Amino acid sequence: MGRRKIPDCDSGRWFASITNAAGGNGSFADYGCPVAGIQRTGFNPFPGTGFTSVPAIIVISGYAEFDYVQQALRLGAVNYLLKPIDKQELLKAVDEALRLEEERQRYEKLEKLADPVLLELDLQAATLSDPIRRAFIYMAEHLHESVTMAQTAAHVHLNASYFSVLFKEQIGLSFSEYLHRLRIQRAKELLLHSQLTIAQIGERSGYRTDKYFIKVFKATEGVSPSRYRQQMRKGPQDIH
To answer: Is the pTM of this model over 0.85?
Structure first.
């Protein structure tokens, strides 16, 4: 708790602006009116109303009616505390809210790190033909090199044209699209789990120059490699 900064805001809109700017993890909403009254103020401090990053919210209220509690939870609050508040109860609620917020952040980062298409293909690996499985291994082991479809087809002892058709038929992606996803996935893992420079990561992911790597990465992920690394390293670090 000593490492957390807790600003005091006298309005929901001010609170949202501070949270967006500082990236808050949790917040308290102390209301002297029913939760339904929040809607009449023109601002709702819960998900979907102005936050770029929604924190874990604890509602503090003098209203014990079940409808108010239910509405607060439905709007996204993680807890609803009644006044007067016991200090230990409050600290426990804050600890739980911060834990939930860190779990949410970790989940969001895992979503950004893992390519869902590659994950699905990993799950389906047992149903793929032996040449395609061997092609996967070959591509992963030579990702830092200039991997071509002809080289991969030769490695699995297939004609390049037939291999191309078989690959697309079983994977649902062209060879080049799969290779692109594989390279970006490798780059994202290295950005998060290594101290390598952007140029070194680009090289190990199979890109000819760091300039080209940055261009392709930004076109795919919407941010530069350095910005992606910065975003992913904020908050919970134990993403494996």
So the answer is: no
